[in-house]
């Protein structure tokens, strides 16, 4: 069995710890997702991520506490004012706390993200953050998924108990959105300078994004020095103005996740690679980070995503077990064996002892934040 020499060279260098260059990423992304080469790329990324994470995964949860028409008008988002047709919602503090308590109840969750709309009431967000901080175990990290914020606001989030913030510069930002790309970059800088963890996600990926565009965007994200990486596909929303562009497959997403995992070799601090929506193909292609979701979700036309697209913590826990991860890492770095959480006697046999080497990991896997 042979793969082209260029592909083999890139993958062998990756197994030696060297990230692919831009043109090499483009080369890997040009393969059809169902090709032999794509399967090998995914297998190599899978091996690398499991080595870097000691075969551990993280489960996080997100609560979308509000939904209303948004002036960001992102063509891919269910909340865009131009095509919003959902009921408006704003959860009470008690509802948010109840969801946070549910998400953390099986002890697996590493962190909870609170998601606002792009335009949001910052003081109310701080109140919600404080209420959730008080309700969930200390090992659960809290993250803010909010609109653009100032340096001062980022410091206030940190002081109120946030450990991180999710904020993206999306593919074709300013073209498929009305938002200002430079302002979003400034927000990322504000987040980082406040001492909050920030992760990059290549999103929202659709069939129209070329290998060159994807490689450039992944490298742009890496240049911002993220703490973790992810890739997310755009979900087909029949009411959106770009519905005709369609949706990529989970298999193509897994190939892009794999190339992202290889690109992340450039930074030894990046141990966790996410995939949205989480699925087993991605979790065996270099991803090791999954999200459960409750409430509003910009990729979902159901106002309560846990009844449609969003996975539960139990779904995520089972998924990382089925993908063969040994455990889930809590926010304080403790490992929870997922088989015990699921009440399954781990029946994996002696063949598992030779599948994972641990030559390349750092201790601790999480920093002290
Ligand atoms: S993705 Fe965010 S900024 Fe864009 S329309 Fe949706 S809520 Fe608004």
Can you give a write-up of this model?
By secondary structure, this protein is of the alpha/beta class. It has one domain (47-342): Alpha-Beta Barrel (TIM Barrel). Helix content is 35%, strand content 16%. The protein has twelve helices and twelve strands. Strands 1, 4, 5, 6, 7, 8, 9, 10, 11 and 12 form a ten-stranded mixed sheet that branches. Strands 2-3 form a two-stranded antiparallel sheet. α3 (36-52) crosses α9 (250-263) and α4 packs across α5. The longest helix is centred in the first third of the chain and has 17 residues, at 36-52. The site of iron/sulfur cluster has 12 residues, from loops.
Produce the secondary structure layout:
Layout: H1 5-15, H2 22-29, H3 36-52, E1 56-64, E2 66-67, E3 89-90, H4 93-103, E4 111-115, H5 122-135, E5 141-145, H6 151-159, E6 164-166, H7 181-193, E7 197-205, H8 211-223, E8 228-233, H9 250-263, E9 273-276, H10 280-283, E10 289-295, H11 313-322, E11 327-329, E12 335-337, H12 338-342
Parallel strand pairs: 1-4, 1-10, 1-11, 4-5, 5-6, 6-7, 7-8, 8-9
Antiparallel strand pairs: 2-3, 11-12
Name the features.
globular, 10-stranded mixed beta sheet, alpha/beta, two-stranded antiparallel sheet, binds iron/sulfur cluster, TIM Barrel, 369 residues
Total count of helical runs of at least 4 residues? 12
Instruction: Tell me which ligands are bound.
Output: iron/sulfur cluster
Radius of gyration: 20 Å
Number of domain units: 1
CATH H-level superfamily title: Aldolase class I
Uncertain residue ranges:
354-364
Q: Order of SSEs, N→C? A: HHHEEEHEHEHEHEHEHEHEHEEH
Query: Shape, please?
Result: globular
Q: Mean pLDDT, as a whole number?
A: 93
Based on the structure given, which CATH architecture is correct? Alpha-Beta Barrel
> In whole angstroms, how far apart are the ends?
46 Å
Secondary-structure content class = alpha/beta
């Amino acid at each position: 069995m042979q793969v082209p020499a260029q592909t083999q060279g890139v993958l062998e260098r990756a197994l030696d710890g060297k990230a692919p260059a831009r043109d090499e990423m483009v080369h890997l992304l040009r393969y059809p997702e169902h090709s032999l080469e794509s399967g090998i790329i995914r297998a190599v990324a899978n091996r690398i991520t499991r080595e870097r994470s000691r075969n551990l995964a993280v489960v996080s949860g997100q609560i979308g506490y509000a939904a209303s028409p948004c002036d960001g008008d992102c063509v891919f988002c269910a909340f865009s004012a131009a095509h919003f047709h959902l009921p408006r919602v704003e959860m009470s503090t008690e509802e948010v706390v109840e969801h946070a308590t549910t998400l953390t109840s099986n002890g697996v969750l590493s962190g909870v993200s609170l998601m606002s709309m792009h335009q949001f009431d910052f003081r109310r967000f701080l109140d919600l953050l404080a209420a959730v901080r008080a309700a969930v175990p200390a090992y659960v990290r809290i993250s803010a998924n909010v609109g653009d914020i100032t340096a001062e606001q980022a410091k206030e989030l940190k002081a109120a108990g946030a450990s991180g913030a999710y904020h993206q510069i999306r593919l074709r930002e300013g073209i498929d959105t009305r938002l200002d790309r430079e302002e979003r970059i400034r927000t990322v800088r504000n987040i980082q300078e406040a001492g909050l963890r920030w992760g990059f996600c290549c999103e929202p990926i659709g069939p129209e994004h070329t290998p060159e565009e994807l490689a450039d965007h992944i490298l742009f994200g890496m240049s911002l020095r993220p703490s973790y990486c992810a890739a997310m596909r755009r979900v087909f929303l029949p009411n959106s103005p770009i519905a005709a562009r369609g949706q990529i497959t989970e298999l193509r997403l897994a190939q892009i996740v794999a190339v992202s995992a290889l690109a992340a070799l450039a930074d030894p601090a990046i141990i966790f690679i996410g995939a949205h929506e989480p699925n087993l193909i991605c979790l065996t292609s270099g991803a090791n980070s999954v999200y459960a979701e409750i409430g509003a979700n910009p990729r979902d036309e159901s106002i309560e995503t846990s009844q449609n697209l969003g996975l539960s913590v139990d779904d995520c826990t089972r998924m990382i077990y089925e993908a063969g991860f040994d455990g889930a890492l809590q926010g304080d770095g403790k490992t929870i064996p997922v088989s015990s959480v699921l009440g399954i006697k781990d029946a994996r046999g002696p063949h598992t002892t030779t599948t994972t080497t641990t030559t390349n990991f750092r201790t601790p896997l999480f920093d002290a934040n």
